[in-house]
Write a structure and sequence with these properties.
Strand order of the largest sheet: 2-1-3
Number of helices: 8
Helix content: 55-70%
Strand content: under 5%
Radius of gyration: 23 Å
């Protein structure tokens, strides 16, 4: 049996995944733009719906790719005399996976969770401070600027990254250098934010803090 055509189809499906990922990146940036420019909440909600649709498509595509791969591996393993109906076998496996779908699946989609996290932070930065400023504008500005300071360099961050585990942000180069230095000593890195109890900061836990970077850039322009 020649599986060249199947391999070609699989390759095309995996290309589709890259398009979905690009779409999710664009939707994230647009949503953050909307919050930053104080657009209508409905526009932001529409971007959230778009992200959910992307995440759903991604899950469906993953299931379909997995169903094809499992079917082909099964046929290669069993080597039947008569080739079974591959399309039906794939469809059965696909429907079985889809029947187990739940909302918690989206928690495993890194781009979707990153979108949710950054949107929440962006709303906090741009809408949350309104009420604080009504109490005392000076205190609000001071608090806000303190969040711009990297706990390692003690300087305003230029490329902040956010720790998915404890939620603290650091200058990207500074935290990566710290992780590398401690790795050579075979030691783990404690979160450098004062008072944080997280004792094992890993490079894989760091994501770009786009929301914070936008606020810092906006402040610098002023």
């Amino acid at each position: 049996i020649s599986f060249d055509a199947v391999d070609s189809a699989l390759s095309s499906l995996k290309n589709c995944q890259s398009y979905i990922n690009s779409g999710m990146d664009v939707a994230t940036q647009v949503a953050l733009d909307l919050v930053e420019s104080f657009n209508d909440e409905e526009d932001v909600n529409n971007m959230e719906k778009a992200m959910l649709e992307y995440a759903t498509m991604d899950r469906e595509l993953n299931h379909y790719i997995k169903a094809i791969e499992e079917t082909i591996n099964q046929v290669k393993r069993e080597k039947p005399e008569n080739l079974p109906d591959l399309e039906n076998l794939v469809q059965e496996k696909f429907l079985e996976m889809e029947s187990k779908n739940s909302d918690s699946d989206f928690e495993r989609n890194e781009k979707y969770m990153y979108f949710k996290d950054q949107l929440k932070e962006m709303k906090k930065q741009y809408h949350g401070k309104d009420t604080i400023e009504q109490i005392d504008e000076d205190i609000a500005v001071t608090r806000s600027q303190m969040n711009f300071i990297c706990p390692i360099t003690q300087m305003t961050m230029k490329r902040p990254v956010r720790n998915k585990v404890c939620g603290h942000s650091y200058e990207e180069d500074a935290i990566l250098e710290m992780i590398q230095t401690q790795k050579l000593k075979k030691k783990s890195v404690r979160c450098p934010k004062m008072g944080c109890s997280h004792v094992d900061v890993k490079g894989s836990d760091l994501v770009p803090d786009e929301a914070l970077k936008r606020v810092i850039d906006s402040q610098n322009k002023q």
